[in-house]
Amino acid sequence: MSARTDALRVLLRIAFRNLAAARVRTAIIGAIVLGGAFLVVLGSSLMDSIDRGMRTSIQGSLGGQLQVYSAASKDPLELYGGLRGEPQLEPIEDFSRVKEVLSRVPNVKAVVPMGIDQAMVATGNVIDVALERLRADVRRLEEGDRSPEALRGYEARKAHVRRLVGLLRDELGQALAIVDLEGREAEERRREWADLTNAASDGFWAGFDGDRYGHLELLENRIARLSMDGSFTFIRYVGTDPDAFFRAFELAQVAKGEMIPKGHRGILVGKQYAEEWLKLKNARRLDLIKDARDRRGRRLADAKDEELQRWVRENQRGTKDILQQLDPLQAEEAARRLRAALGSEAAGEDLPALLARLFRVDDANFDARYRIFYDQLAPLLRLYLIDVGDTITIKAPAKSGYFNSVNVKVYGFIQFRQIERSGIAGMTSVLDLLSFRDLYGYMTKERAAEIARLKGAVGAKELAREDAEAALFGGGGPLEGRAATARIDERSLLEGARAPGPAQDPAARTYTQEELDRGVALNAALVLHDPAKLEATRRDVQAAADRAGLGLRVVDWHAASGVVGQFVTTLRIVLYVSLLVFFGVALVIVNNAMVMATLQRVTEIGTMRAIGAQRRFVLVMLLVETATVGLAFGLAGAALGGAAVWLVRAAGGIPATNDMLNFLFAGPALRPVLGGASVVVSLVIVVVVSVLSGLYPALLAMRVTPVEAMATED
Amino acid sequence: MRLVLAALSLAAALAAPAARALGPDELAKVVRVLDDRQRNSGDWKALCYMEAKEKGKTDVVYELVVYRRDADDKQMFLFTKPKSEAGKGYLRVEKNLWSYDPSTGRWERRTERERIGGTDMRRDDVSEPRFAEDYTATWEGDEKLGVYDVHRIRLDVKPGVDVSFPVRRLWVDRASLNILKRQDLALSGRLMRTSYYPRWRKIYSESKRGEVWYPEEIRVFDEIEKGNSTLVLIREIDLRALAANIFTKAWLESKSR
Questions:
Q1: Mean pLDDT computed over every residue of chain A
Q2: pLDDT digits (tens, 9 = 90+) for B53-94
Q3: Do A402 and B59 touch (CB under 8 A)?
Q4: What single string gives the DSSP state of each residue in A573-626?
Q5: A122, A393 contact by CB (below 8 A)
Q6: Which of A140, A287, A674, B67 is deepest in the core (most CB within 10 A)?
Q7: Between chains, do B198 and A479 touch, taking CB under 8 Å as contact?
Q8: Do A537 and A635 have their domain in common?
Q9: Residues A566, A567, A572, CA angle at the centre, nearest 5°?
Q10: Which structural domain, as residue segments, surrounds residue A210?
């Protein structure tokens, strides 16, 4: 034993002597090893931190630890959508059965039903929306409601619509002044202008109460269509049991409003979606400018920052949305408040000029103007196109082929803690499961039978495109015949098909847990008691599903995350490939350096061999030398890597500059943590690479004989 | 021998249907006839069946009533079957097309090019045609469509007119002057849809004091999404005057209350 220790001590002394003797060579090899260890420690610490962040984001937002979906689905589940939109999943026809079976699997804490899809939300153009509200008031009045509240609301909306018509007339008047039209188009524009002039006149509004519906029809059909506003937006939602969802996903929180009451229909709109797509554009731009200044250090004075300059310009020019929202009284109040807030220079200015002044911002006045907007103007405005308390209509192509629509109340906005700024999860709204099922429109047996009956009654022949001409026109015969007038009675045709009355109004009902569970879902998230046993539980869940004949595919959160998960996998592959290339090159360089060194030491090695050193001793001597370099510089590199990780962390981490990074970092910045495993792995890698690169020169040295050494000397 | 061949050629030429070009006046007359035949000076109401096939999806089937008052440029679609669709509808007043869903009680403004009920049918497929007013016609040739001799006519939209398709091509039966086939093209010339009209019916109209033609069967094949097609059957026609207030939102809403 002591002989071996002595030998090792001698070997180490020789190694250090040689390393010290050839400082340049040692420095070169050491630098390479050090760099490698540094990269491994820093890279793997960052990747481990991203992995942790991604796990937090996915498991805490939509994923849970495991996901199940129908094994008959052609597409794989992608919780955050794929490159080609939402995956096409076959339905789980009865979720309650899945819940019953999977809840019994050990380590499964919760089974949350889900159905992720996209739908349209009709928002109408501004005049359409105002007219829709006025029509509802008119309907109430015509039905006999003469309460002061109803009359006040009616008059206020009428005044608002009148103001909108006036604004539209001003806008189109300017447009008409600069276009030169001819013929039919000119005639049409002239007619539109005449309609608009009529609708803006005192006479029109004086006669409004005489024929409310007639006046409304004219405004809806002749005037509203002239306002070229957008009329719908898309919304991505997860249909779920909101109660179970909030219990399972710890990051979910109601950012504004309230939770959907248990057993009720409703929607929580994704906060980030609301910010990006539903917020009043001027307010959104102010928020973006503030964020750019406060968090990114950008300045309005920087003329090269085109984005900031554009936002400021667009805010000054685009005040139409604000002007349209205000009824005459509100417009007056807004002007009064802005005059008071903007100082003496603004005295005497009208509302459009005041708004332009408000949005004319620079670095000196931005914070004050931002506050004026939110403190003075915003309370008079509707900041979001869809807001808490609204009832919205969601429409989607159902699986039965028809378009289905549902009305749902917006109870609040939802966000996911830590990843509030990320659109990956933040774009998703939470919809109650029953509304989801109505939109999904699963083809029931009864529906299919009704369709078959309709088709059978008509008995139309099926024709393939390519055979159509021959089948329809190949046989000759008369092309026309005579028909007799018929009596078509829509009343009898519609018999038995009536919209649900108030007693059956689905929005007013409270649903039992059984009603929520019994029905279609597209996938389900499984939350585990002990996430560390993920793989074993996945196998158990799959086995349980198979035994019960549920026909489910069970995947972990990473697989279910689709492209998001693949992004991190790609990053990791890039890191590993880069390191592989680095160490491959390092191996060649170190190997060459050691070969050169060995050739220079032939005499020395020959002499050692002559005085009794065995071949194995020579081999080990050189391997110890390279391993020593690897270990010493590897330790230094790992220490540097650790220091870099600490420095990055101390500096606040790597900022998440976009949505994806915010999601992957599970927060606004990545604060890496030095992993013990990273250090150990880096040392093992560098020592192994060092030893491997020293192996060939060591074998060369081992073959040196005293005779050769002396011959070389000669 | 030469004499025999010449005689045979002459006989063949005489036996073949005349293939001389339609002159501008004749062409204008044909297009006017196409418009006039389907024009009904009064109201128009039809019970229709619509069946849409989409590749890889379940067939969508409707029974619906289509209403027209061409003089006022108004049109309405009221779906009556299947049950889930009953009471839904579209209302067109001039250039506005509204869709209504009784389950939500909401009206939505749609574009005039809306695919009715998500099928390949557009609202102008069952409207009074205005080929002469909206398009400039060009005779492209005479040819055979199956066993029928037809004129092939190209229609290009006139400037400033808003139509579903800027270019259309018609195959018109030379004997009966019924449209048998229609192609709808984009401005780029890309073929979008092909429709066939294998059966026409005529019915006496009191308001017109003459015959009104309508296609009993329309088959629309989508040329972009191959495999998608829509069948429209006009099963019954009622030409009596409709109630004055029928083309209003309130009327359509009342049908599902």
A1: 88
A2: 988 788 899 999 999 998 888 999 999 999 989 999 999 988
A3: no
A4: HHHHHHHHHHHHHHHHHHHHHHHHHHHHTHHHHHHHHHTT--HHHHHHHHHHHH
A5: yes
A6: B67
A7: yes
A8: no
A9: 95
A10: 126-230
The pLDDT score that the predictor gives to residue A230 is 60
In a domain, A555, yes or no: no
Same domain (yes/no): A590, A699: yes
DSSP assignment, residue A278?
I
- Among A502-506, B187-191, B237-241, whose mean pLDDT is lowest? A502-506
B chain contacts of residue A225, beta-carbon cutoff 8 Å: 95-96, 109
Task: Give the pLDDT of residue A206.
Answer: 94
Residues A46 and A80 in one domain: no
What tens digit of pLDDT does each residue of A198-220 get?
999 999 999 999 999 999 989 98
The SS3 call for residue B5 is helix
By Cβ distance, the residue of B54, B85, B147 closest to A476 is B147
Residue in the block written with tokens 């919304």 = A235
Taking the C-alpha atoms of residue A671 and residue A46, their distance in angstroms, rounded to an integer, is 8
Q: Are residues A588 and A658 in the same domain?
A: yes
Decide if A120 contacts A230 (C-beta within 8 A). Answer: no
Do residues A144 and A253 both lie within one domain? no
Residue A364 domain-assigned (yes or no):
no
Q: With an 8 Å Cβ cutoff, are B148 and A454 in contact?
A: no
Name, in order, each residue with C-beta under 8 angstroms of A373's C-beta and a sequence gap of 6 or more: A282, A283, A286, A358
Query: Could you tell me if A620 and A681 lie in one domain?
Result: yes
Percent helix, strand, coil in chain B, to 5, is: 20, 45, 35
Interface-testing mutation among A195, A454, A505, with chain B (most B C-beta atoms within 10 A): A454
A221 vs B contacts (CB less than 8 Å): 93-94, 96
What integer best gives the mean pLDDT of chain B? 87
Q: Does residue A306 lie within any of the structural domains?
A: no
Cα Dmax for chain B: 83
ipTM for the complex?
0.86
Do β-strands B229-238 and A552-556 pair in parallel, antiparallel, or remain unpaired?
A: unpaired
The CA distances from residue B102 to A235, A406, A434, A499, in Å, are: 22, 10, 18, 6
Local confidence band at B8 (pLDDT 50, 70, 90 cut-offs): very low
- Domains of chain B (ranges; CATH) run 28-254 (2.50.20.10)
Number of domains in chain A: 3
A571-622 residue pLDDT tens: 889 988 998 898 888 888 888 888 888 888 788 888 888 888 788 888 888 8
* HEC profile of A206-269: HCHHHCHHHHHHHHHHHHHHHCCCCCEEEEEEEEECHHHHHHHCCCEEEEEECCCCCCCCCEEE
d(CA A520, CA A70): 11
Out of A184, A454, A488, name the one closest to residue B45 (CB). Answer: A488
> Does residue A244 contact residue A62 with C-beta atoms inside 8 Å?
no
Radius of gyration of the CA atoms of chain A, in A: 37
Q: How far is CA A115 from the centre of its chain?
A: 16
Partners of B239 on chain A (C-beta within 8 Å) are 485
Residues in chain B: 257
Q: Which of B117, B176, B227 sits opposite A479 (nearest CB)?
A: B176
Contact B171, B152 (CB under 8 A): yes
- Residue B19 C-alpha, separation from nearest chain A C-alpha, in angstroms: 20
Distance, CA of A16 to CA of A20 (rounded, Å): 6
Instruction: Note the Cα B166 to chain centre separation in Å.
Output: 15
Question: A488, B86: Cβ pair inside 8 Å?
Answer: no
Going by pLDDT thresholds of 50, 70 and 90, the confidence category of residue A229 is: low
* Whether residue A207 is found in the same domain as residue A245: no
Instruction: Mark whether A579 and A526 lie in a shared domain.
Output: no
Is residue A489 a part of any domain in this protein? no
Q: Are strands A252-257 and A403-416 parallel, antiparallel or unpaired?
A: antiparallel
Average pLDDT over residues B164-175: 94
